[in-house]
Amino acid sequence: MNTQNLRSTRTKLSNATLGALPKYIVTPRYDRTALTPGIVHIGVGNFHRAHQAWYLHRLMQAGDALDWAIVGAGVRPFDEAQRQKLAQQDYMTTLVELSPDGRSAEVVGSMIDYLPIEPGNGPLIARMAQRDIRIVALTVTEGGYYIDPVTKAFDAQHPDMIHDAANPNTPKTAFGAMVAALRARRDADLGPFTGMSCDNLQGNGEILRQTVVSLARMSDPVLAEWINDACTFPNSMVDCIVPATGPQELELIQTFGVDDTVPVTHENFRQWVIEDAFCAGRPAWDKAGATFTDAVHDFEAMKIRILNGGHQIIAGAGEMLSLKTIADCMGNDSVAALLSKVTHTEIVPLVKAVPGMTPDAYTDLIARRFSNPEIVDTTRRVAFDGASRQPGFIVPTIRDGLAAGTPVEGLALVSAVWARMCEGTREDGSTIEPNDPFWDDLNTVAKAAKTDPKAWLAQKQYYNDLASEPRFATAFCEWLEMIWRDGLERTIAAYLAR
């Protein structure tokens, strides 16, 4: 592909200009004006457009699933800016695949609308309540399901849940809107829809069911039972590294000769494993490469423990050492060796193999994916929201390791690095800007933990009773003290030498 001098001739992305785009950009072969909706997707971020929307687009390229087009949605005021950008290009997105061997671009056209963002979520409720919507899917981040990060129980005391229960017709949240739409569907005898989480949560379908049914029960127990009986909430595992879009990505898309204000870059790997439990039908995503199986838990355990856990192993260290991207982290001998040892010795022994992949082979695959120099995935993005990701991706492995008698020293070091990072300064003295919904609280405790490491483990919302587990707590305290005294790289070296 020759992309030189295309910046001056780039074409604004729209239905009318698809034929004018450079021939090396793959464009929809289907008639987008003939598509009809079947899915409302809440949370139309980069990951959704590079993953779920792409799988559906691939089916449409083969002439299939033309009645399953996506209606995008959001529930927060900031979603409106994204909606307007996508509307200006007829809801299409240019995906740029970044492989170590080269780059390619494809326009995805499986989304045909994006609902207005309004207080009370009236447009969203009304659209989900229509008969043609058979799946409501979500990517709202791991921390967005109103659950206790340790116990995974529904948080009925959260102000958003209290509001939605008291105002069921004008809810704040996606879950309140789903409850309201399901009430309308039941009352109109339109039947249920499938609720499908596409977030990195183990048992994400079960968690979505818990949130929706529990919220409904707070205001209408009869409706809650109908939802629990009539709706399905399949578990799924999603996997694709998708960086945030920033100035570099906006600059990159111009070299392809297309003017797209919300392009998405992604790696040359995707995986989607889904439980086949859809109460109102589904697209044949398996024809586009997805896997339907009753063993989703094994796939998601491997991915969450090794990939998502691996991200947490290197992101905190990368922040402390001023490494800007995940590829930079993998280019640092200390950080790469930390990832390898912790994963192979402390995570892999607790993970089951899945058809076609052993945990050790998956670990090596993840290391190659993390090392892809074409993927500009910032360390800051991966380190975001440790308050959800550490208890979600690291702490469960610590618990399993303690129960199984396998090593946990490296995972204790990972926790200590998180505690050090939350103090808010890097080893070069630069400031780490707030990067967590609970940053102020974490920062306060991290400063106290500088002289009293046990103060960090006293945060039961993340660690529950791990402070009373000597194998973990002793190692954690020793590592945090060593990081503050000797620096991170010497501490990592001490761990690697054991």
From TrEMBL:
Keyword Iron in record: no
Xref: InterPro entries: 6-PGluconate_DH-like_C_sf, 6PGD_dom2, Mannitol_DH, Mannitol_DH/Oxidoreductase, Mannitol_DH_C, Mannitol_DH_N, NAD(P)-bd_dom_sf
Assigned keywords, A-Z: Oxidoreductase
Record-listed E.C. numbers: 1.1.1.67
Domain Mannitol dehydrogenase N-terminal: 38-287
Domain Mannitol dehydrogenase C-terminal: 296-484
MF-aspect GO terms: mannitol 2-dehydrogenase activity
Superkingdom of the source species: Bacteria
Name of one Pfam family that matches: Mannitol_dh
The protein's name: Mannitol 2-dehydrogenase
Organism of origin: Thalassobacter stenotrophicus
